[in-house]
Fold this sequence. Notes:
Blueprint: H1 2-35, H2 47-53, E1 58-61, E2 74-80, H3 85-96, E3 105-111, H4 116-121, E4 129-133, E5 139-144, H5 149-155
Parallel strand pairs: 1-3, 2-3
Antiparallel strand pairs: 2-4, 4-5
Helix pairs in contact: 1-3
Amino acid sequence: MKNILWIIVVIVIIGGIWFFSGQEIADEQTALTENTNSVTNNPAITDEETTQATGGGSYIDYKPELLARADNGDVVLFFHASWCPTCRLLDNNLIKDYEIIPADLTILQVNYDKEDDLKEKYDIAYQHTLVQVDSSGDQITKWVGGNDLDSILQKLK
């Protein structure tokens, strides 16, 4: 009986740690979103203004016409889910580092939960997948994970 009580206590403690660490990530994301003067989260800023503000590189929402940017640089699709803690971490780091995104790099955030056609096209099995594409939208390379801009730059071909 004592062993069962100890197991329950351990499960409750682990559950509490897991819950509050997830809440901490959510609170951190909210703070970053509210306090960061990010061009990527400002719907009033146009795509051209985003490019100018970041020195050429950008991290913006996916639009099919933006694939043409691959003619002059690299385009990476980031399959992001708002409920995914590792996606939020990469998102926060890209927002924080938007000013140092190289001029020839466009990172397009794709809504994992809504873009079923794109998930099928690139055979995306789960969120936090990144796909480098050419201007026709053809896959160059694909990988899972990464927490910051450097992790993306290392994977580009």
